[in-house]
TrEMBL record:
This is Metal ABC transporter substrate-binding protein. PANTHER family: HIGH-AFFINITY ZINC UPTAKE SYSTEM PROTEIN ZNUA-RELATED, METAL-BINDING PROTEIN HI_0362-RELATED. One of its GO terms (biological process) is cell adhesion. It is found in: Cell envelope. Belongs to the bacterial solute-binding protein 9 family. Keywords: Membrane, Metal-binding, Signal, Transmembrane, Transmembrane helix, Transport. Pfam families: ZnuA. The chain crosses the membrane at residues 5-22. One of its GO terms (cellular component) is cell envelope. InterPro entries: AdhesinB (IPR006129), Bact_metal-bind_prot9 (IPR050492), Lipoprotein_PsaA-like (IPR006128), ZnuA-like (IPR006127). It comes from Companilactobacillus halodurans. Its main location: other.
Length: 312
């Protein structure tokens, strides 16, 4: 009898031990201790800036791919791994952006013992995806270049921050509301801006085909040398194809993205005698303190420079 009681006590102690262990784990992942800031990691500078606009100084923020660097292909550094391990929330673009180098981001998530939809979230979750024309099964990642999608990203980010850090929920929501209103205003301006330019001039020529979402939103036609940065860049076939498209139009200027090599576009310019108007921003923000150093500022720069380059 004594033996049975001892065993029973043991079993009960074990069960409650497991219960308390699981319960405390649950609490750890759902609620922050008082005074602890939510630790957030983003894969690139555009997401970093969106998260910063919502979380401001109430979060700790770290971004993996540095400004001016291509987020398609990346080799995570030791600091990237340690920051990801320590993070409460990780945002990536999704839509086939962070897939170069055999899926560098997926590998990082695995190494850091994080889980998709638990602590890793795709900011593009609610976007209606467009697909690559060279490979229709693959999504085109550049959804943020349409401000209406950028607003969707901000809404997803806000929801996650509010869920993970409830005590600051109203602070995050108020920041998001203000930020979204500013983005919406720019979006509305851009939607009618290009319609005054003759259609034969409204061809947006870039190195990477990053402007599908932008073009659909703002009434221009996209043309590019290569479709996505994970492909070969500037092959003779790609050059011939873009030159043929340009020659069918009255396009006044070409553009080159800040995060790719300008070499191929310079060749296109030489072949056609059409000048490169300016750099524009696609996959990365500019260095802090310069034009294009926030998501709003990069979009404003793109909208204004593309307009000027196509109109004159
Ligand atoms: Zn890209």
């Amino acid at each position: 009898m004594k033996k049975i009681i001892i065993t029973l006590v043991g079993v009960i102690a074990m069960i409650s031990g497991v219960y308390f262990f699981l319960h405390s784990r649950e609490n750890n992942s759902q609620e922050l201790a008082d005074g602890d800031k939510l630790r957030v990691v983003t894969t690139n500078s555009i997401l970093e800036d969106m998260v910063h606009n919502v979380g401001k100084d109430r979060i700790e923020l770290y971004s993996i791919v540095k400004r001016g660097t291509d987020p398609h292909e990346y080799e995570p550094q030791p600091t990237d791994v340690s920051e990801t391990v320590e993070a409460n929330v990780i945002f990536h673009n999704g839509l086939n952006l962070e897939t170069g180098g055999n899926g560098w981001f997926k590998k990082l998530v695995k190494t850091s013992h994080k889980s998709f939809d638990e602590d890793v979230f795709s900011a593009s979750k609610t976007v209606v995806p467009k697909h690559l024309t060279t490979n229709v099964n693959e999504e085109d990642p550049h959804a943020w270049l349409d401000l209406a999608n950028g607003i969707k990203y901000v809404q997803v980010i806000t929801k996650v921050l509010k869920d993970k850090d409830k005590k600051n929920a109203s602070f995050y929501q108020a920041n998001a509301d203000k930020y979204i209103a500013k983005l919406e205003k720019l979006h509305k301006t851009a939607q009618s801006k290009y319609l005054g330019i003759p259609e034969s001039q409204r061809l947006l020529v870039t190195s990477e085909g990053a402007f599908k979402y932008f073009s659909a939103a703002y009434h221009v036609t996209p043309a590019y040398i290569w479709e996505i940065n994970t492909e070969a860049q500037g092959t003779p076939e790609q050059m011939q194809s873009v030159l043929a498209k340009i020659r069918k139009t009255d396009v006044k200027h070409l553009f080159v993205e800040s995060s790719v090599s300008p070499k191929s576009m310079e060749k296109v310019s030489k072949e056609t005698g059409i000048g490169i108007y300016s750099k524009i921003f696609t996959d990365s923000l500019a260095k802090k303190g310069t034009d294009g150093d926030t998501y709003y500022s990069m979009m404003k720069w793109n909208i204004d420079h593309i307009y000027d380059g196509l109109a004159k």
